[in-house]
Amino acid sequence: MRILIVAATEDEVRSPKSEVGSHIPGLKTQDSGLKTQDLTFLITGVGMVATAFALGQHLANNQYDLAINLGIAGAFDRNIELGEVLEITEDTFAELGAEDGDEFIPIDKLGFGTGVYKPLAKLSDLASSANLKTASAITVNTVNGNEASIKKITGRLNPQLESMEGAAFFYACKQMNMPCLQIRAVSNYVEKRNRDNWKIGPAIKNLNTFALNFLKQLA
């Protein structure tokens, strides 16, 4: 199985990338069962534009059996613990549409496209022992950190998580009809910006641990 791992930053995939090691064809790292000819990492940069461009450019010349987007996210849902890893089953371009006074008209309603995307694969179908909670997410250009905007977006879409890349990843994979998964670890709650409350380190650690275990199961 040829797998593409997509992330916005190096940190979000540092452990799996280190485990595989050098991108020498045929190299097999000690005890991992992962081979570099079966696994490719694509670091896109942060944001939906960077993600869509990098992924589209890469997939134009490369074919895979599965693409996995790994990253951190903010949580609207306080029932989700900081550091928790979740499978995203629906992602929405939250800002794609038009304003009509106080009303927001999504791109679907305008008749110009689709704003909601779902993965073309399911985690449990690929590895029966890979068991994660599922969540819905939105993809934004501006991370929410204002009480008024948080109230507005939760009232309109009621998302559980937000990221800056997820829906763009789903969009690109759908254009190529490629099986895909999005896995997110929660680094913070969506609130007024307060870095002291963030748990980026534990979120990335948990994300990487899950990714390594899942990839080894596939191998």
Task: Please characterize this protein's 3D structure.
The structure is a single chain. Helix 1 packs parallel to helix 7 and helix 2 packs parallel to helix 6. This protein has one domain (3-218): 3-Layer(aba) Sandwich (Rossmann fold). Helix 5 links the parallel strand 8 and strand 9 (161-163). It is 31% helix and 27% strand. It has helices spanning 14-20, 48-59, 107-110, 123-126, 147-157, 166-175, 200-218; strands at 3-7, 39-43, 66-75, 85-93, 97-100, 103-106, 116-117, 133-139, 161-163, 180-189. It is of the alpha/beta class and 219 residues long.
Oligomer: single chain
The fraction of residues in strands falls at 25-35%
Radius of gyration: 17 Å
Average of the residue pLDDT scores: 90
Gap between N and C termini, in Å? 8 Å
Number of helices: 7
CATH top level label: Alpha Beta
Structural class: alpha/beta
Q: Element order, helices and strands?
A: EHEHEEEEHEHEHEHEH
Major pleated sheet:
5 strands, mixed, barrel
CATH topology type: Rossmann fold
CATH homolog superfamily? Nucleoside phosphorylase domain
| Bulk shape | globular
User: What count of domains describes the coordinates?
Assistant: 1
Which CATH architecture?
3-Layer(aba) Sandwich
Helical content band: 25-40%
What are the segments in which pLDDT stays under 50 over at least 5 consecutive residues?
22-33
The total count of strands amounts to 10
Write out the strand line-up for the largest beta sheet, numbering strands in chain order: 3-9-8-4-10
